[in-house]
Write the structure tokens for this entry.
Amino acid sequence: MSKSNAHPAKIRYNYQMAPEARLNTAHGVWGGINPQGEIEMNFYHESDALPPYSERLVAPDGSIGHEITPEDDERREVTRHIHSRVLLNYHTARAVLEWLEDRVAALEEEGEPGLYEADSGIEQ
């Protein structure tokens, strides 16, 4: 076997963080398989929706009453802010799945699985 066809004994991956990179919290993911056969994931975090306005009643004596917003009608709105979109092909999705399974197994070894039970936030 010639030296030019030989595989290296090891590969080193160096990581560089882009200055604009930021950490995002993901409360969930929405997505599915797109027409190109890739898995599309849209990660989001949730927060209570801000009202478009708020008002306060002013009493005849000039005192200010409680705040009134359009949401006072007993419904609750939650805004999902999509901050990251990821497309994975089949092979990358398999690799990410294995990676996540390893990390979840490590979490379960560290503590009671009940510590991590919550709404999964995964939708399709």
